[in-house]
Structures are given as structure tokens and as C-alpha cells.
Amino acid sequence: TIPESWRSGIYSARLRSAITSEEAYVTFVVKSKTLSTSGVAVLANVNTWLAYNSWGGKSKYDGAALNSFLRPILMRPAYPEGRPSPVGSWDAFDHLARAEIFLLNWLQREGYQPDVYTDIDFHNNGVPAGYHKLIVGTHPEYWTYGMRDQLDAFLGRGGSLLYLGGNGLFETAAYIPGQT
To answer: DSSP string of 13-25?
Structure first.
């Protein structure tokens, strides 16, 4: 259960084996129950996280034809105690969530209180009414047709898009029915 006091954002739970002391981090998004005062929504690019996820088998880049959200996405979005990552330590998983956290931290330092939504949220519902700005950052490579329709509708209502990503809206994604 997520405490009511947690604000919208990207978090991770640290898991540690009692047998080997090996650690893994499961990254997740907490959505806001109310509209932020800044009216800014940030899209967490979980479709791209999934494409790089090879837990329990293969990633898209290892030849998997289908991937599923029904498995953990093991990333470490930040090092403990706020330490910077060691040079050369970034891997395909770490750079995805960590870069989005850098963006969220910058927005918060600049006085914004953005709310975070996932690709799945955006595919199913767009962003809730009241948001006037949508930020798509880092690496939003995989988009569904539904996400594109939601973006067109958002812009048609007068919303503004700030696109800060690279290699974005590049490849089509699709969800397995019943898993979104």
C-alpha cells in the first residue's frame, strides 16, 4: 500500500535476497489522486522500459517478439544516499528511469509540481481534464495507436506538448488485451 502522503513520481522498491544478499530494484509510478497546481503532466515511458527488460527471458533487443508487463522491471533509478552513479556504470535499464527522475527533479527545483502518468495510463485515458501541459521526455520510443490518438485529442483541446526526448514515437507498440 502506498502512503497517502507520497506525491506523484517514479519510485523503486529495493529487494534483497536473504540467502545471497543480492539486490534488485523494482521501479514503479505513483499517480496523483488530484490535479497538480501547476497543471503539468509528465509521461513515464514504461513501454520503452519494457522493450529493454530482459528479466526472466529476452528483451525486444534480444529477439523477443512479445514482452509482458506481468514481470518485474528491474532498474535502479538512483543510487542510495543520492550518490552519483560511478562512471561507466549505466546500463540499458538504469538510464531509462534515471533520466526521467532527473527531469522530474529539475521541474521540482524550478517550482513545478508535475504529476506522473505511464504510457498505459495515457493509452487508456489520456491525461485527466485540467492538465494544460504534457511533457514527454528522455526516450519515448514505443507508442500505441491509442497513445497517438490521445495526444491528438489533448492538442486539439488546446493542450501544449513539450517534447524533450530522443528517438521518440519511433516504433509501434501494442498491449495484450486484459493486461493494461
So the answer is: EEEE-TTT--EEE
Q: How far is the CA of 169 from the CAs of 2, 139, 147, 161, in angstroms?
A: 31, 9, 10, 14
CB 130 within 8 A of CB 104: no
CB 12 within 8 A of CB 94: no
Whole-structure pTM value: 0.83
Handedness of CA 12, 141, 43, 64 (dihedral sign): negative
- Secondary structure letter of residue 158 according to DSSP: T
Tens of pLDDT, residues 57-105: 788 888 877 777 777 776 655 555 544 444 444 444 456 777 888 889 8
Consecutive H or E run containing 50: helix 46-52
Give the long-range contacts of residues 156-162, CB within 8 A, separation 24 or more.
158/132, 159/127, 159/131, 159/132, 159/133, 159/134, 160/132, 160/133, 160/134, 161/133, 161/134, 161/135, 161/136, 162/133, 162/134, 162/135, 162/136
For 99, residues 6+ apart whose C-beta sits below 8 A from its C-beta are: 137, 138, 139
Compute the distance between CA of residue 123 and CA of residue 133 in angstroms, rounded to an integer: 17
